[in-house]
Design brief:
With 359 residues, the protein is an alpha/beta fold. It has helices spanning 44-52, 120-123, 126-140, 175-186, 200-205, 218-229, 244-254, 292-295, 300-317, 335-344, and strands at residues 4-10, 18-24, 32-41, 61-62, 66-74, 85-89, 103-107, 144-146, 152-155, 166-170, 190-195, 210-213, 233-238, 262-265, 279-282, 324-328, 349-354. Strands 3, 5, 6, 7, 16 and 17 form a 6-stranded mixed β-sheet that branches. α3 crosses α9 (300-317) and α6 crosses α7 (244-254).
């Protein structure tokens, strides 16, 4: 293997993406694999990082964290083998781990193994979306407990008639929302999700029992969700970080559950107050692989180890389907345009870049 590779760098905050051909190929350390980056999905976090400089070790830096590729090298005594297909979320902002380059590092403990039935493009949509969904639903709302192999030990709702137990997903059409609907359904819950009229059939297609249009005002959304669920829910998962007022009002005023209630959100930056009647949980996937003190969630990595196994099981059983893809061809030269395309995306499909061939 050559010692240098092609990748797409940014040289500072707000600088444009630039294709270079002299990046050093990283060497896998203990518990890591080197992956040939075949396809990568685009996420809002890339724009957040490039425009703010946050989460970035140093410049110049390669971005990208939603991986799909082929293992080309491993450290000693690994379970994973050269030639295996792999996907998942890599560490963000650290040199060597980013996916907008020919080869990147991935921690074995965070690896998701896609079934052969999924294409590399489809597998690239899984990591960030499905793992964030697990953080909200399992770490936050605690819909279920997993054993060390990522299999379900117990559902939180096991002591309630299954057909009456609901989960509220605010934002069901995005990548995280679609995976959240599927995971909640796989765990035996009914799901009501907010979405647009345009994406209603898509959200129902991934498993939502009912949908409520977010174009309605907050009071109307509240009344419809309350009527649909009869208050039989203990968790609200805000996947789009835009619906705090609605989510917390639902838990405080509509929920009749006696369980630990939780408002989980992808918003980890806005000031929010604690409430006496429910718990607040902020999803922080961006801190994957970082020191615990940086994330204020010391159990994040240990949870993600279980979630990677759980997601692998769901994919193998056919209970979790990938996002629909909006594929951009053109290799590394196409990354900058794909990032712009993601910014303008209205939801429903995940923007994925085909970076290079398998051979």
């Amino acid at each position: 293997m050559a010692k240098t590779m092609t990748g797409v760098v940014i040289e500072g905050v707000g600088s444009p993406y630039k294709v270079v051909h002299d990046l050093e190929v990283p060497e896998p350390g203990e518990g890591q694999v080197l992956v040939k980056s075949i396809a990568t999905a685009i996420n809002p976090v890339e724009t957040y990082m490039s425009s703010s400089g946050l989460l970035i070790e140093s410049f110049p830096i390669v971005l990208g964290c939603d991986s799909s590729g082929l293992i080309t090298k491993t450290s000693p005594n690994m379970t994973l083998k050269v030639g295996q297909r792999i996907c998942g979320c890599t560490r963000l902002g650290f040199h060597g781990y980013s996916t907008f380059q020919q080869y990147f590092l991935l921690d074995e403990r965070f690896a998701i193994l896609p079934p052969d039935s999924l294409s590399y493009n489809e597998a690239a949509t899984i990591g960030v979306g499905a793992e964030t969904a697990c953080i909200g639903l399992l770490q936050g709302i605690k819909l279920a407990e997993l054993d060390k192999e990522g299999k379900v030990l117990k559902r939180k709702g096991d002591d309630v008639e299954e057909e009456k137990e609901w989960v509220v997903v605010l934002g069901g059409a995005g990548s995280v929302g679609q995976y959240s609907v599927q995971i909640a359904k796989a765990l035996g819950y009914k799901v009501v999700a907010t979405c647009s009229k345009r994406t209603a059939e898509l959200v129902k297609g991934v498993g939502a029992n009912e949908v409520v249009y977010y174009t309605l005002n907050q009071d109307e959304q509240y009344e419809k969700i309350k009527e649909i669920t009869s208050g039989n829910f203990f968790g609200v998962w805000d996947t789009v970080a835009k619906s705090e007022a609605l989510g917390r009002k639902l838990l405080s005023d509509a929920s009749v559950s006696k369980k630990r209630k939780c408002y989980a959100t992808t918003d980890d930056w806005s000031p929010m107050e604690d409430k006496p009647d429910h718990y607040l949980h902020r999803a922080k996937l961006a801190y994957i692989g970082r020191p615990a003190e940086e994330s204020s969630q010391p159990d994040l990595d240990s949870s993600l180890v279980l979630y990677a196994k759980f997601i692998t099981h769901l994919l193998a059983d056919g209970r979790l389907k990938p996002n629909e893809t909006d594929v951009v061809t053109g290799g590394f030269d196409a990354v900058a345009g794909a990032v712009e395309k993601q910014l303008k995306s209205a939801g429903g499909k995940k923007v994925v870049v085909e970076l290079q061939s398998v051979d």
